Amino acid sequence: MPTNGQHAAGAGALLAILRDGRARTRGELARLTGLSRSTVSQRLDGLIGSRWVVESESGISSGGRPAAVFAFNGAARVVLAADVGATRARLAVLDLGLNVLAEQVASLPVELGPERVLGGVADGFRELLAAAGRDAGQVCGVGVGLPGPVEHRTGRPVNPPIMPGWDGFAVPEWLRSRLGAPVLVDNDVNVMALGEHWAARPAVDHLIYIKIGTGIGCGIISGGGLHRGARGAAGDVGHIRVPASEAPCRCGNSGCLEAVAGGASMAAALRAAGIEARGSKDVVALMRAGDLRATRLVRQAGREVGAVMAAIVNFFNPSVIVIGGDVAEAGEQVLAGVRETIYSRSLPLATQHLAIRAGALGDRAGVVGAAVMVVEHVLAPASIDRAAGA
Ligand SMILES: [Zn+2]
Question: Entry's Pfam families (predicted)?
Fold first, then answer.
């Protein structure tokens, strides 16, 4: 059915239909869009010319000649994706169908500052392109997730607490001048939410992705798209106050969720009890090895996160909550606590069809999400129409 708006039946709309598989032939496209077959053919020619679409003969004859079948050409171009963390960056080359063609994890502590870290990211991308047998001319965009607040419109970090030297740095311009493709930047949790939202197909309109790692934060998909808030600070649940806690938090307040349930705080609690633990990964490893104190901490962290999420479930009414981050690798130990508390404290109407589960993408949520951010931008019907009309 054609929808309103000038792009309703442009080349970009046809490409969107081919991407989600609702139509494959000229006749089906004409029926779905209300366009004449000749207009459909003309637009398809343009999309084939710019390599967005490939044509193949159908084996199935519909009475007379076999109908030509058209498909989105997800392999013709690639996206570069970087998930920059506090100490490491995961880099990947993906095709437009979001298949990972090559990837690497580089040791790039974010505290080295933007030029050294982004220089390492650009070098890594060049190596990965060569490894995937692709060249810079095939790159249609670059997506980057950073471990701090980012103003999405400009792609610049805003007062990031663990990123000295990055405040206001022009990340997109710096990378674009070296990689020759448009660059989109967002904070890591938003990017991971995009990745898990893509992985949660078929479409889920209201999803919360919560990352329990060293710190705690969440990304919000509302009405099918990312909700960033007025200043990009939406989802910062790690500093919501937990009742009956006075634990000091790195933000300067006390009693924050992160200060009782974050990986760094659990590791500190174990060290105070004489057990060697440097961070969230060690806490999970100790739990897996059968350490009772670590197990108790992880379960309690699940309940604390669940208590905050219960309020969010009542407020936001998501249909899916995805739990990711290092601590989520504790699996059922943490999920059980989250579920138990959400189901006992949220309203029945809000939890009736609520799914609470571990992330599907694991460590790749960030790079897949960064690629989703780029693909959604590059393949937006308006972008395709602009390119076709130019
Ligand atoms: Zn705090």
Answer: MarR_2 (PF12802), ROK (PF00480)
Q: Which amino acid is at 216?
A: I
Residue 163 per-residue DSSP state: -
DSSP state of 201: P
Angstrom CA distances, 328 to 206, 264, 265, 344, 354, stand at 21, 14, 15, 21, 18
Alpha helix stretches (DSSP H) within the chain: 11-19, 26-33, 37-49, 114-131, 171-179, 188-199, 257-261, 263-272, 280-288, 292-316, 332-345, 348-351, 365-378, 381-389
Q: How far apart are CA 345 and CA 100, in angstroms?
A: 40
| CA torsion, ordered 340, 344, 349, 353, to nearest 10 deg | 10
CA-to-CA distance for 276 and 295, rounded, in angstroms? 15
Q: Quick one: pLDDT band at residue 58, thresholds 50, 70, 90?
A: low
DSSP states along 76-105: SSEEEEEEE-SSEEEEEEEETT--EEEEEE
In the numeric block, the tokens 């880099």 are attached to: 91
Q: Which residue has the higher pLDDT, 332 or 132?
A: 132
pTM of the model: 0.90
Neighbours of 124 (CB within 10 A): 21
* Ligand 1: centre distance to CA 259 (Å): 7
CA diameter of the chain: 80
Give 252 Cα–ligand 1 centroid separation in angstroms. Answer: 6
Spacing, Cα 179 to ligand 1 middle (Å): 37
Distance CA 94, CA 378 (A): 14
SS percent in the chain: helix, strand, coil, step 5: 45, 20, 35
Per DSSP, the three-state class of 70 is: strand
CA of 338 to the centre of ligand 1 (A): 20
Q: Sign (positive/negative) of CA torsion 155, 161, 167, 169?
A: negative
Q: How confident is the model at residue 64 (pLDDT cuts 50, 70, 90)?
A: low
Rounded to the nearest angstrom, the distance between the alpha carbon of 67 and the centre of ligand 1 is 61
| Dihedral sign, Cα of residue 175, residue 132, residue 369, residue 257 | negative
Q: What are phi and psi of 323, to 5 degrees?
A: -105, 125
